[in-house]
Specification:
Elements: E1 3-9, H1 15-25, E2 30-36, H2 39-45, H3 49-66, E3 70-76, H4 86-103, E4 108-114, E5 120-122
Parallel strand pairs: 1-2, 1-3, 3-4
Antiparallel strand pairs: 4-5
Helix pairs in contact: 2-4
């Protein structure tokens, strides 16, 4: 079975759109969901060390046990955990990708934005 991993907001509105996108994007049968409120902000700021450590541990478990072939870090419109505007959230996603690549250099890591219509867009990742 093929897995991929989403580091996603806990907001239920974004779960299915992200799962559906990632299944197609990574040709995956299953998506391991790692949820926090505003995970792109958490991984960009790196101030909540216990939460950051927990996210890293859960991603590692997904990679080691499910052989996850890709990781997505997600931001979305109307996020209670990261109430920043879109452009700032996109910056947080980019910073999160840079951080995650240090921990998981052999896994493809992408950024996703979910808009006000719950449509998923892969963001440019030229890092």
């Amino acid at each position: 079975m093929v897995f991929c991993t989403a580091v996603n907001c806990m907001d239920g509105r974004v779960q299915l759109p992200v799962i559906n996108y990632l299944k197609e994007r990574f040709s995956a049968k299953h998506v391991d969901m790692i949820t926090e409120t505003g995970p792109n902000l958490i991984l960009a700021e790196l101030t909540a060390s216990m939460i950051v450590g927990s996210i890293i541990t859960r991603i590692d478990l997904s990679i080691q046990k499910h052989l996850s072939k890709g990781i997505a870090i997600v931001g979305h419109h109307d996020c209670a955990g990261n109430p920043s505007q879109k452009e700032e959230q996109l910056s947080h996603i980019q910073e999160s990708i840079i951080f995650l690549k240090k921990h998981f250099p052999n896994v493809e890591i992408i950024g996703l934005w979910v808009d006000q219509n719950w449509q998923v867009f892969e963001i440019d990742n030229t890092n």
